[in-house]
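Morning run. Coffee first, then this:
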Amino acid sequence: MVIAVTGASGFIGSLLVSHLAQKHTVIALKRRLDNTHQPKVEERLFDLTKPETFENISGADALVHCAYIEFSPKNKEASTQNIEGTLALANLCKEKGMHFIFLSSMSAHADALSEYGKHKFAIERKLSGKGQAIIRPGLVVGDTGGLYNNIKNIIAKSSIIPLIGGGNQPIQIVHVDQLCSVIEQVAVNKTDGFYTVATPRVYTMKELYNAIAAGQSKKIRFINLPFGFMKFTLSIAEAIGLNLPIKTENLNGLKQLRSFNTKPDLEKLGVELRGWRASKSPPWRVPNKVTAGWVQLQHTPSRQAAPPLSRGDISFIVLTKALWGLYLCRNPDDKCRGKTKTMPLINLPRPASGGSTPP
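And here it is:
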């Protein structure tokens, strides 16, 4: 079988190409060719903003559409480009009799605030015909990219972790290897329809942070940050060109996260995604050909003492307090103003007797 993959240079797309190439011929569609010369993989140019490159999907039996254009203040046309380009691509697949698989997101719903969630939802509403499948993955767990890997890197570098809005946002996860197996199954079987692929169990962002820290044998401290304050801070950072791990677009997505009942869709696909336990064993195992797997995400409270604050941690705390004061001055009607003049859980520790603050 010949399967084409757009966004083949991205986190999910690149791993999907490698996965599919084990059994199938793959057309890797990229904005820039890097000539990696993988066996059974042919690279072709593809750009979602250039319809003249769409014909490069020719020869495939199925197309998996992973590519998208990232929204930013410098590219406010991204949502329109994503919607128009994806729908044109889907129509071309229909003309060629090619199965079209659209990789959406659990961020896509009617109340989405992020441009990413909005454009994915707008595309979903247009795609429900024969020969088309929509896959909505949860938070994709992997070691080579994506939001999960960014969170891991942040926790590895710092013991002070911002906890936005109390950290109660719902999170459902799927390992990238499991997701690739599901996509392959949908392509091979030419499955139509709409499928949300994530663990039935719903976690919280705080549980996710604690589980990652436990996996790194690390104790972390949280700074509780209101959404309004974070939006204010990120707007300043973006205005002066600071490249932070989280952007306003990410914050909007986080604020409107939703949980979904995934059991019916997983049963239709014959897939079982089980819970995650923090341990040193591999993050997932495949007990059978249906790609059931274990994704470790159950935090066991650590008895390990909190590590001393680094200079970077202390600098972060001081900067956060300064921005909090500025935020209250700019937003006198904020409901937090009457309760506290400083952020909770970020007081600097007193130096031990006879010592000094750790470097």
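Residues 277-303, 337-359 have pLDDT under 50 and may be disordered. Good start to the day.
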